[in-house]
Amino acid sequence: MDDFNRDRKIIHVDMDAFYASVEQMDNPELRGKPVAVGGSETRGVVSAASYEARKFGVRSALSGALAKKYCPEIIFVRPRFDRYKEISQKIRKIFLDYTDLVEPLSLDEAYLDVTQNKKGNPSATLIAQEIRRRIYEETGLTASAGISINKFIAKVASDYNKPNGQKTVTPDEVILFLEALPIGKFYGVGKVTRDKMYQLGIFTGLDLKQKSVEFLEKNFGKSGVYYYHIVRGIHNSEVKPERVAKSVATEHTFNENLTSEIFMEEKLQTIAGELERRLKRYNIAGKTVTLKIKYSDFTLQTRSKTLPYFISDKSLLYDTAKELLYQERMKDSVRLLGISLNNLNTEVKKTVVVQLRFDF
C-alpha cells in the first residue's frame, strides 16, 4: 500500500518564457527572434530569455556580455514589470474561475488545488487543458502545466512538455515516474546538491530511494528527510491562497553604497549565515525568501520566491537570495540588503530582525 495521498488533484501552471513572450507578443518585430529581457551588451544581467535565445545557452542571471557572446544576434529589451503584472492578474482571474485554492509563486506560475472545483469537473487533466486554452485566448500567451497528487510532482511535471504542453502523473504512475526521474530534475535539488548526490552514486530517483533516511540525513541534514519522502511521493504541503506574514529577517546597512552585484553576492553570503543562526536558535524554517533592497535614494524594493519545502540552511537561503538579486537590473547603488524568511512552519509572535554591525 502506498504511503502517499492519492486523492488530491493539484495543477501547477507555468507560463512559457513569460517576460520574453510578452515582449514578443507586444512587438511583432521580435517574434521568432532571440530576445533577452534585461541586461545589455556591456553590463547588467538577463532577467528572462526567449526560447530562441535559450537555444544558444542564454538564460536568466547570465551577464549581458556573455549573452551577446553566446548569441551575437540577441536583442536586449528593457523589462516592463507593470505590463507583466497586468497580464498576470488576468491569468489569476482565470484560475479563480475554477478554484479559490490558488497559490501564486510568482507573476508567471501558480499551484491550483482542483480536488473540489467550481466546475464540478472530476478530471484535473481536462481542467488544465481548459485553463491553458483560456490563457491563450485571453492573453495571447502559452502556458504549460503539470498535474498530479501533490505540489512537488505537479511542479516537476509542468516542465516535462514545455513549451505549450502538459503532463499528468496519475496516482498509479507516481512511483515509476519518480524512480526514473534524473536527480537533477527533482525540484529543490540545485547544482551543488546534484553534484554531491552524483558523488554518492545517486543519479536517479531509484538511486535516491535506495538510501536510508539516516544516510540522507547524515549527508544532507534536514533536507535529507525531505528527499526521503518526496521520492516516495509523499509531500503533503497544502495549496495555500494566503501567505503567513510573520517572518525572521536579517539586514545590513553598508558604510559605503554598493554598485556591483558581485560585491552584493559576498554580503548576501554573510547575511544568509546570520539568518541561518537565528532560525536554528528559534528552531524554525520557512518557505518564502524575500530579498530587501534599499537604494542610495532611500527607495525600497522587495523580491520574493516561495519554495515547495521548508528551509533554514544558509546555502539554500543564499542561492534563493542570489537568484532574486539577478531577477531584474539594479536601478541605483545599494545602501542596504536584507533577507527574510516567512511562510513559517511555526508560530512566531513578531518579525525578528538583526542588524549586522561589523564592517564589510
TrEMBL record:
SUPFAM superfamilies: DNA/RNA polymerases (SSF56672), Lesion bypass DNA polymerase (Y-family), little finger domain (SSF100879)
Coiled coil spans: none
The protein's assembly and partners: Monomer.
Annotated cofactor note: Binds 2 magnesium ions per subunit.
EC number(s) stated in the UniProt entry for this protein: 2.7.7.7
Annotated site residues (Substrate discrimination) in this chain: 19
Residue sites binding Mg(2+) per the record: 14, 108
Protein's organism: Flavobacterium pallidum
InterPro entries registered for this protein in UniProt: DNA/RNA_pol_sf, DNA_pol_Y-fam_lit_finger_sf, DNA_pol_Y-fam_little_finger, DNA_polymerase-Y, DNApol_IV, PolY_HhH_motif, Rev_trsase/Diguanyl_cyclase, UmuC
One GO term describing the cellular component: cytosol
Pfam families: IMS, IMS_C, IMS_HHH
GO biological process: DNA repair; DNA-templated DNA replication; error-prone translesion synthesis; SOS response
Cellular localisation: Cytoplasm
EC class of the enzyme, as a word: transferase
This protein's UniProt keywords: Cytoplasm, DNA damage, DNA repair, DNA replication, DNA-binding, DNA-directed DNA polymerase, Magnesium, Metal-binding, Mutator protein, Nucleotidyltransferase, Transferase
Function: Poorly processive, error-prone DNA polymerase involved in untargeted mutagenesis. Copies undamaged DNA at stalled replication forks, which arise in vivo from mismatched or misaligned primer ends. These misaligned primers can be extended by PolIV. Exhibits no 3'-5' exonuclease (proofreading) activity. May be involved in translesional synthesis, in conjunction with the beta clamp from PolIII.
GO molecular function: damaged DNA binding; DNA-directed DNA polymerase activity; magnesium ion binding
Names of the cofactor(s): Mg(2+)
Active site: 109
Family: Belongs to the DNA polymerase type-Y family.
Domain named UmuC: residues: 10-190
Catalytic activity field: DNA(n) + a 2'-deoxyribonucleoside 5'-triphosphate = DNA(n+1) + diphosphate
Protein name (database record): DNA polymerase IV
Matching PROSITE patterns: UMUC
Location, primary (coarse class): cytoplasm
Keyword S-adenosyl-L-methionine attached: no
